[in-house]
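REQUEST ID: PR-0412
SUBMITTED BY: lab tech R.K.
PRIORITY: routine
TASK: structure prediction, single protein chain
INPUT:
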Amino acid sequence: MVANRTSIAVVGFAFLALIGCTQSDPVSPVSRTNIGANDLGSFDEPESPAATPQTVTIVQHSERNGPSNFVATGAISDSGPITLDSVNATALPSPVVGTAHYIRTYHGELGTFTLKMQTLITPTDVPWLWAEKGEWLLASGTGAYEGLRGEGHEEGIRDFAANALDVVFTGKVR
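STATUS: complete
OUTPUT:
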């Protein structure tokens, strides 16, 4: 029992170290602000005929002390690096190892867009692989993404042995 709690605590601390070091811009410090459970918001604005929601898929790969990149298809067709702007994470010695709130900016050729995310990290059958599931909200954009809003789901795997995150975001934007 003590060994099990110790391994959960070690993985929890590894999680906190990994998420704090996935930013692609090593010059900018990570701001650990408190986003809060209900701060994701929503894009429930009056809908006009020109603002029909369209499907988007964003595939992200991040490595600790390495690159963080994305490829988006669908309503957003772009790719580029990612900046981790803010993170607030908690790891608990329980069956659910952690929660996190992130703000990330995606820098594409056509502009930038910023996602607010809240995720839940849970163990898998492989001790160093952890499932990550959550919700995202497209909060702002520049260039071609100015005025764009959206929301959806996030699902991925954190590999603590490789210090990497592979995640897919699916949802709707308008």
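NOTES: The chain is about 10% helix and 50% strand.
REVIEWED BY: pending
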